[in-house]
Amino acid sequence: MPPQPRSAITLAGLSKSFGAVTAVDDLSFEVGYGRVVGFLGPNGAGKTTTLRMLMGLIEPTSGTARINGVLYGDLDDPVHTLGALLDGGGLHPGRSGRNHLRIITTAARIPYSRVEEVLELVDLQSAADRRAGGYSLGMKQRLGLAAALLGDPRILVLDEPANGLDPQGIHWLRDFLRSLAAEGRAILVSSHLLAEVAQTVDDVVVIAGGRLVASGPLARLLAERGARTLEEAYLDLTDAASAGPA
User: Fold this and answer.
1) CA 243/CA 85 separation, integer angstroms
2) Residue range 190-220, pLDDT digits in tens
């Protein structure tokens, strides 16, 4: 097996403009293996646009977003390299959770046995034969996470995975993500739940107005800002970015 790159995800000078609006502006950061990285920013900061560029769903205006050193479209085996939970996972309301996953495995040439494995991983076995249209938001999030895990990828990109989860589900998700990182996987997770992020991540990336305002280990960020909590540091950083130059 070839040596694994140090960085699972590398963004370099990534920018995206929609007409006169710059959604992402010269964004650079890395996500390492064995790390959970919180991707934080206000609504409209450019987080979803960034994730969609990483996945090859939007063409950057400039810069690059690479996975193991290559663009997503150039990956030899994307299904087994990167799993993503974006935009709710594209569920068909009339299909059962199990059939939704089986359709994905068929397209990706993954054995059906993997469906049962991921259903157990996300604790969705008891609801697997119910129509996905009747799922709660939290159950849909678990199914989307199961789909992201089908290829047993080394990299996960998750956009607001805790949406709709109850407190027990959020606690489960925290432990689950930490266990995946302990296996050496790289996880980039976007979230607005700052208190939960603080208990889950190793590193944080904070953007505002499409620009990077801070990145690095959570403990270092708190120390540099003289903050007691991630929420305090985040509000300080994003308020300062919104205020602009003095």
Assistant:
1) 33
2) 999 999 999 999 999 999 999 999 999 999 9
Residue 124 to residue 140: CA distance in whole angstroms: 10
Closest alpha carbon to 159 in 40, 12, 23: 40
Looking at the chain, how many residues does it have? 246
CA atoms within 13 A on the CB side of 198: 15
Q: Specify whether the CB–CB gap between 125 and 89 falls below 8 A.
A: no
For 53-108, what is each residue's pLDDT tens digit? Answer: 999 999 999 999 999 999 999 999 999 999 999 975 567 889 999 999 999 999 89
Burial status of residue 198 (CB atoms within 10 A of its CB: 0-12, 13-18, 19 or more): middle
H-assigned helices in 27-161: 47-54, 78-81, 97-108, 113-121, 137-149
Phi and psi at residue 106, in whole multiples of 5°? -60, -45
Question: Which pLDDT does position 5 carry in this prediction?
Answer: 63
Phi, psi angle pair for 8, to nearest 5°: -75, -40
Q: Is the dihedral of CA 90, 96, 100, 101 positive or negative?
A: positive
pLDDT (0 to 100) of residue 87: 75
Strands 62-67 and 7-18, how do they pair?
antiparallel
- The residue ranges of DSSP E strands in the chain, in sequence order, are 7-18, 21-32, 36-40, 62-67, 70-71, 82-85, 155-159, 186-190, 203-208, 211-217
* Rounded mean pLDDT, 114-126: 96
